[in-house]
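User: Please predict the structure of the protein below. I'd like the answer in structure-token form so I can feed it into my own downstream comparison script.

Assistant: Understood. Taking the following sequence of 293 residues as input:
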Amino acid sequence: MRPDDWHITEDLDEFLARAGDFLRARPALHTMQLTVTETLRTRGADAYGAEAPVFGRLERAGEVCATFFFRIPPGRLNLTPLTPEHADTLAARLAGLGHSLPGVSAEHDTATAFAEAWQRHTDATPTLRERHRLYRLGTLTPPEPLPEGRGRLAGEQDRRQLRCWFREFAAAIGEIPSADADALADTRFADRRVTLWETPDGTPVSMAGVTEMSAGQIRVAPVYTPAHLRGRGYASAVTVEVSRAALAAGATEVVLFADLANPTSNSLYQRIGYLPVTDFAVYDFSCDAPEVR
């Protein structure tokens, strides 16, 4: 395989013109790339910050068979499934160009193959950070009984609460809370894409957000309940609410990720109708600047 089979660009329109059909062909598996590119397309190249994102595609015989992006917070390389050979040629290409990568996130075997290849080509040490399971909604099955209360869209009066919960969610998953969390909270709020579960007295106790629809799929993210309110069914209730709303909006696929280290959330999602698709892995790299071998 020639390194030239990888095409790398900062031009989103060029990337989508060649890779858009490939991404739309498997919307659940490609959910991250679809939602990121849709956000950039609708909100502009600086939607995730001042640094221009980098996109790439692998072409064989004129057909796109894999894609990636990076420089989207938290900065890790995001890959569609690759063979170990393709992962190695990509690692060699990116290292040779001097790109810095804090880590990689992809389907489990792909992420592992790339992490090993990146170590070979740069001497960076990969560390497995977490493993996630991607779920797709089958038949939505609300829990019985639901906790007392109701679901509602977040309103202006909830903005401060949302910012707080988005920061707490970032900290809970091991990310450093930053202005990005506030920006994400404000964006989801402005687009009416955050649902709250509130108790009968009107107190918000859990939230669930969704991405914009792209290629017929919507991803539920994030789902968060403060620690002192967990175990009461609030997360199940609010996830059912946003899932039902996604279906009503016309989504043909509703997906979400669950941390495999959290058996409670994995069990919760399966009880309300989500079915496993595949597992993903996230690796961190020990150094940013590659020392090409």
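That's the full token string. The longest strand covers residues 126-137.
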